[in-house]
Write a structure and sequence with these properties.
By secondary structure, the protein is of the alpha+beta class. The protein has 21 helices and 11 strands. The chain has 4 domains: about 5-90, no CATH class; about 100-315, Transferase(Phosphotransferase), domain 1 (Orthogonal Bundle), CATH 1.10.510; about 315-440, no CATH class; about 475-545. The protein has helices at about 5-20, 30-40, 55-65, 65-75, 85-90, 100-115, 160-180, 185, 190-200, 205-220, 255-260, 265-280, 320-330, 335-345, 355-365, 380-390, 400-420, 425-440, 440-460, 465-520, 525-545; strands spanning about 120, 130, 135-140, 150-155, 225, 240-245, 245-250, 285, 295, 305, 315. One of its GO terms (molecular function) is protein kinase activity.
Length: about 550
């Protein structure tokens, strides 16, 4: 662990203690040493006793920086784990993080664009409209047509903070591997590496611009989801300019009810949008906390989502999609044996896993989920039980699906808030069954053929040449194999002769030493000399190159 990591680790503990978060350590005998160490090594006391625990937790995460703020954003959707008072405070991390100075924002925009703001924009508001962990947003108008826009600006000097926390996370990953026997199954390095990549991608707003353009294209003319227009000519690494949208934050339930929004349809569309992005497009919004999701003010009876902040997007391969779809459908059908077999087939668990035992373990965890409304299901407990089950069967964490798992947590949290009676399974099952049917039948085969035929037509004239080349390669390969086998035979013969010479030389040396002790003149020296010469000959013969 580097000195900088130790300093950052100490700072993290210091901030947590200054906000009194040691109250979260249970008063149990098993934690006695931890509490004693806390008083011996750190002399920081709670400096914010006048604030609630939820507010202190929010302020500490905010002070720790973007990595921790994003962690708080995810926790803000877990109403089944935390009290409403804590959730209300953590929800402020979604778009109301303390902003940086608007003058600095203006300077950064002008530096990126290479000129004064007034050349392109008017009515620039120096006060931030919203502020999040990595960037903040200011409003303005395009000078050329008066279009209302928002300008997103990356926080200055944020990269060193992120790198320090990522370095510390790698240290913690090493620590997990050392202290836990099953640490390798968690694949902590891969998980941290994936998280590092997503954070660093977020620092380049050109990535977000391309993501938004693609997502907007995928949902063109969709009644379910609207994505704001991007003004590409004004986008840079640290500056992003988009159309300004007006909507109700998805977490503002009172406003949604006030305009008579169809809450059941809204909740169902949230699930449909997620599965459409994952299975139709293989490209999904992976940061769907309530601060990034709005509901259009128009047509409340036919509600439409508005999605912003596409800095983190997930991509799945065709194999991942099929595996997930088959697993979901098997879960919905309560076919736990199929789930167990899919896990083994995908090599997520060892091939020698006993299917019957794995099936029983999955059934025990998942069966209580069904026949209950969403409000009665504790997904926190389910995930905990599934994790323990996975450990028992040596299941490895799949880093490529970490973002998908996080997004599922967001979807479940949003669904719980919007329409607690939502039947998640009934909503998702028809979609997945249709996807599997479309991608397993004749139509899918014909589509693949349609895609491949132009390539095959292009390659047909090259077939004779490719055939001749392959025959030549096969002949050459056969000659190489014959040469290798010949050399191996020669080497084996040389080794046999060399070992024989070593045996003779060793025998002569032993005889020479024996004669030397008998004092029979110079004969022992001659015998030992001949033995040494034979040993050298054997060594040289064995070392000869066979080329």
């Amino acid at each position: 662990m580097m000195l900088s990591d130790l300093c950052r680790f100490y700072l993290i503990i210091q901030i947590c203690l200054s906000y009194g978060l040691d109250e979260l350590i249970p008063q149990m005998r098993i934690n006695l040493l931890l509490r004693i160490a806390r008083h011996m090594l750190f002399w920081m006391h709670n400096k914010h006793k006048d604030k609630s625990l939820g507010e202190r937790l929010r302020l500490s995460l905010q002070e720790l920086g973007p990595v921790w703020i994003k962690f708080g954003q995810m926790l803000s959707t877990r109403r089944d784990i935390f009290s409403s008072l804590i959730i209300e405070q953590l929800s402020l991390l979604q778009d109301r993080v303390a902003p940086f100075d608007g003058i600095l924002a203006r300077q950064q925009i002008e530096s990126s664009m290479g000129g004064s703001l007034e050349q392109w924009f008017e009515d620039f508001d120096q006060n931030a409209l919203a502020s999040a962990s990595i960037a903040q947003v200011h409003t303005a108008r395009l000078k050329e047509n008066g279009q209302e826009i928002v300008i997103k600006v990356i926080r200055p000097d944020i990269l060193p903070i992120i790198k320090a926390d990522i370095s510390l996370m790698y240290f913690l990953a090493d620590w997990i591997l050392k202290i836990r026997e099953d640490g390798r199954l968690l694949r902590p390095h891969e998980v941290v590496r994936e998280y590092e990549k997503t954070l660093l991608d977020e620092l380049n707003l050109l990535h977000e611009a391309s993501n938004m353009i693609k997502l907007r294209h995928n949902f063109t003319n969709s009644s379910m989801l609207y994505v704001p227009e991007i003004y590409s000519k004004f986008c840079y690494e640290k500056v992003l300019v988009t159309e300004r949208i007006y909507g109700i934050p998805v977490s503002n339930l009172s406003a949604l009810h006030a305009q008579n929004t169809n809450m059941k349809l809204l909740a169902e569309r949230g699930v449909q949008i997620f599965f459409t992005q994952v299975f139709r497009d293989s490209f999904f919004h992976a940061d769907m906390h309530p601060g990034n999701i709005f509901v259009s003010l128009e047509h409340p009876e036919n509600p439409q989502y508005i999605s912003i902040d596409c800095g983190i997007m997930g991509i799945l391969s065709k194999d991942d999609k099929r595996y997930l779809a088959e697993n979901f459908v098997a879960f919905f059908n309560r076919d736990y044996r199929k789930v167990a077999e899919l896990h083994v087939a995908s090599r997520w668990v060892p091939g020698n896993t006993k299917i019957e035992d794995f099936e029983f373990a999955i059934r025990r965890v998942c069966e209580p989920i069904f026949a209950k409304p969403l409000a009665d299901i504790s997904f926190g407990n389910v995930l905990y039980d599934l994790f323990n089950t996975a450990r028992c069967f040596n299941m490895e964490v799949q880093p490529q699906l970490v973002m998908l798992q996080k997004t599922l947590l967001y979807i479940e949290g949003l669904g719980r808030q919007i329409y607690p009676q939502l039947d998640l399974w009934t909503t998702a099952k028809p979609f997945l069954e249709k996807w599997l049917k479309d991608h397993s039948g004749l139509s899918d085969m014909l589509l693949i053929l349609k895609e491949k035929i132009p390539l095959w037509v292009e390659k047909i004239p090259e077939l004779p040449e490719l055939l001749y080349y392959n025959l030549q390669q096969n002949n050459s390969l056969k000659k190489n194999f014959d040469m290798i086998f010949t050399r191996l035979d020669q080497q084996r013969d040389r080794q046999v002769i060399s070992c024989y010479l070593f045996g003779v030389s060793t025998t002569l040396l032993i005889i020479g030493i024996t004669l030397l002790t008998s004092k029979v003149g110079v004969w022992p020296f001659w015998v030992m000399t001949i033995g040494c010469l034979i040993w050298i000959a054997g060594w040289c013969y064995g070392r000869q190159d066979n080329t």
